[in-house]
Write a structure and sequence with these properties.
Layout lengths: L2 H10 L5 H4 L3 H6 L15 H9 L6 E5 L2 H7 L17 E2 L4 H6 L2 H15 L4 E5 L1 H5 L4 H12 L3 E4 L8 H15 L13 E7 L5 H12 L2 E7 L4 H5 L6 E4 L2 H15 L3 E3 L5 H17 L5 H28 L3 E5 L4 H11 L3 E6 L5 H11 L5 E2 L4 H9 L5 E4 L4 H6 L4 E3 L10 H16 L3 H5 L21
Parallel strand pairs: 1-2, 1-3, 3-4, 5-6, 5-7, 7-8, 9-10, 9-12, 10-11, 12-13
Helix pairs in contact: 1-10, 4-10, 7-9, 10-13, 14-15, 15-20, 16-17
Amino acid sequence: MSALTSKVEAVFNEPACGVNQGKSDKERKKGCAKQLTPGAAAGGCAFDGAKIALQPIVDVAHLVHGPIACEGNSWDNRHAASSGPKLYRTGFTTDIGDLDVVYGGEKRLFRAIREIIEKYDPPAVFVYQTCVTAMIGDDIEAVCKAAAAKFGKPVIPVNAPGFAGSKNLGNKLGGEALLDYVVGTEEPEFSTPYDINIYGEYNLAGELWQVKPLFDALGIRVLANISGDARYSDVARSHRAKAAMMVCSKALINIARKMEERYGIPYFEGSFYGISDTSESLRNIAKLLVQQGAPEELLARTEALIAREEARAWARIEPYRARLSGKRVLLITGGVKSWSVVSALQEIGIEVMGTSTKKSTKEDKARIKEIMGDESHMFDDLPPREMYRILKNSEADIMLSGGRSQFVALKAKTPWMDINQERHHAYAGYEGMVELMKQIDLLLYNPIWEQVRRPAPWERDNEGLDMRSEGGC
């Protein structure tokens, strides 16, 4: 059995996965996804998922061993921001060609690693396997081991070729690479009772920076954020944290469970979207730290901070409440956002008339049902035609989704806001909630919508009547 096959089976058999917990041992080993069909990688392959999970480690070189198109399609596909190093935004690829397919690409890979180390001197090099190099039999583990010994630098193999499965599987395989080769390889200069890890937070548009000041105010140190705005050493030393928070369980639940098993780091799943959820996450972090030995006065300080920040946030949101209360939103996203954003919107009085659950776990769906009361507002797979019908019939005032469905909203002449990883605005924490309300208000009341909904001159008769409702051209 190959190392990749063994690793994929282990990931599929993840005991901390809520879906797996209701299955027998035999069912778990079959996997947690349907067999891939042609075109399934359009939503992201395993290589893409691994790159998404690891590329926000900002000071290392991310080298793609494969055709140049693999790096081109995966480069910078999320707005994961950095507070310092920019090396993660440089695209590195071995750019293998026909001769490499015939004779093998291992020597080319070794030379590429050497060139990166000589030119950039990164703390580590991450090497990503792709479909072509996996099929021709290139052993990236052996090459990385030899390169690490030769150059005295960590060279981390990420064995997640696209054909292995979906993007979500790739997220977990990326996490396995960290567990196997990075976590526990360095020691922090000092430890405190207030050290925590955060898993599955990618600092999209700088969202981590909206939350970190809250931790700083409490004296809590984020030892490692995996992986937004992370440094290699942060991840290598993350095994000394006292507690952890899981932001997106579908992506990196394997890291959370194994860190708890190996190093005794308890974790919980929470959200930084919305005022109530942010407050609850701060409380849970404080409780876990106190259970792990932190002074109990941390609980009182946390409540004082929550009271102050909630009052400040609501005061800033108040001008938007009358304008946004009762507005209807269609939410097309997945994972943790499928329920956390629902909760955030409902706090302000916005009605969520439907939310997608295609990329949500069983626990995510249970939370949606708890928040929204029933399953009638949950869409497992909403086709574009149905999206268009909902928006065209004015069943929703605005759609929040990813970029791929924005044109459905624009065709229906309905406001649209990006809520997925390509967004340019950060919506986490108390500051993020204020920004979310501001952006929704700006979109809903933008005068452009009144203008585009008017009939064009050629859609009117000589008396100015709208011919569209009378069968006109």
